[in-house]
């Protein structure tokens, strides 16, 4: 049983650039893994195929045992509810409070306000942002803003959380702190997949690491094989 399975996936962009070649791996429910590789290795392309912002040219992507090539039209929006996304620059709404930013995905789903408030307070606590709900994003530090981005992606209890270079704008200490937050997220039923070019940082987290090079999956390192590095 897997939440995500790539089976012989290839992606060639218009113009002939082959971004992914014969990529096969699977992710168990609640598993945490990193994906790393040099710039242009194909990390963002792989994440786009999970969000259905792009489609494979070859092979198949299965999410919760469903082939995503059969997910079209209105069903794309339902699929995206199951995939929380954390962005590098967090993309928070500047004029909305932290609590409003985090609750927005639930407002869009029409959830009752009291239930949204309850969930938002709980996730604010969990992210160590308990006192910052009424603040505007600009009043927070870079690390706090990224924690708000993670909270917003998690609030809908997605089956999988994906993040593309979530520490790209942070200094090394904050980057490690944010990666620790990702590493602590699974175990509540959400699988987490974080892309980062920073191999040294990723290896320190002692989680599974997929390594892409020129579009090919060249390594799939188990946490126990990172223990002594
Ligand atoms: N929309 C596109 N059209 C054409 N080529 C693209 C497109 N998006 C990405 N590419 C190319 O596909 C390859 C893989 O890009 P991708 O963004 O997936 O790599 P990445 O590993 O995420 O890199 P980075 O760490 O720099 O973000 C690169 O050569 C890139 O130039």
TrEMBL record:
The protein's name: ATP-binding cassette domain-containing protein
Report which residue ranges the record marks as coiled coil.
none
Source taxonomy: Bacteria, Pseudomonadati, Pseudomonadota, Gammaproteobacteria, Lysobacterales
The protein's matches in InterPro entries, at most eight in alphabetical order, are given as:
AAA+_ATPase, ABC_transporter-like_ATP-bd, ABC_transporter-like_CS, ABC_transpr_LolD-like, MacB-like_ATP-bd, P-loop_NTPase
Keyword terms, alphabetized: ATP-binding, Nucleotide-binding, Transport
Work out whether the entry's keyword set contains ATP-binding.
yes
ABC transporter domain sequence ranges: 4-229
Q: Does the keyword NAD apply?
A: no
A GO molecular-function annotation: ATP binding
Origin species, per record, is: Lysobacter soyae
